[in-house]
Amino acid sequence: MLTEKLVLKNPLLFIYKTVGGNLRKTKNNMNIKQLAFGLLTIGLISCNSTPNEKNTEETATYSDIKIVGAMKNVMWKGELGSSIDLDTISDKNGLYGLGPVSYLTGELLVNNGKSYVSKVTSDSTMTVEKTFGTSAPFFVYGNVTEWNEIDLQSDVKTIQNLEKFIDDKTTDFKRPFAFKLIGQVSSAIIHIQNLPKGTKVSSPDEAHQGQTNYNIENEDAVIIGFFSTEHKGVFTHHDSFLHMHLITKDESKMGHLDELEIKKMKLYLPKK
């Protein structure tokens, strides 16, 4: 008796004809192995194309911050010598960085690939030289080529105000990161380290021997800073998330920023 039988086995469907008790493929059917391979491939593609949970974590476009040496080792262990020669930093495109000069004889600032060294000449004067031919006992630096401009709230006037404002604005940022402010300061106090030659250091008080303070009044300035909640004693002081250096627009004054009253400035944060 001639019979037809439909056999369904998921995921393959084959049509067979039984003739005289023997199972034969119809001439119109493709080779079973080829069909199986094809359907299996489709099945695998289908499985892999099932929507996966989307990774919503944003990747920051700015590079990781690099840290050499540590402030606490300079202050407490007297490690005053060079931990980095600035001219060995190869990528100077969008480079920002800051720290003291080796043996605490000045201050360093790198602003958009340009390196500045300030040194004390008197209690009211200083020199600011543009050079990479210098070194630091500790130094924090990184590359940023794209920035977002942010208006500061009217009540952001001091370093403490600024720290809180930046912290609140960057909860989803990759930390630490560089930032900058550009505009006018009503007043500021900056200092330059000027440790007497041969001085041994084993405490912050000893490290600050010779430090000279300078007042800035009603000046256009650029402030370069680095923010971190995890690097106290490394590149920020024990009571701050910020380390900042200020340079006046005419580049005649530069130093570590201790006090600030903002007149009108814009904040720049790295694009994520």
Describe this structure in words.
With 272 residues, this protein is mainly β. It folds into two domains: 3-48, no CATH class; 66-270, 2-Layer Sandwich (60s Ribosomal Protein L30, Chain: A), CATH 3.30.1330.80. Helices cover 14% and strands 42% of the residues. It is built from four helices and 16 strands. The chain has helices spanning 32-48, 71-77, 159-169, 204-207; strands spanning 3-9, 12-19, 22-25, 66-68, 84-85, 95-100, 107-111, 114-120, 126-130, 135-136, 139-143, 147-151, 177-192, 212-227, 242-248, 254-270. It has a six-stranded antiparallel β-sheet, with no helix packed on it. Strands 12, 13, 14, 15 and 16 form a five-stranded antiparallel β-sheet that branches. A hairpin with a 5-residue loop joins β15 (242-248) and β16 (254-270). It is globular and about 45 Å long. The chain starts with a strand and ends with a strand. The relative contact order is 0.18.
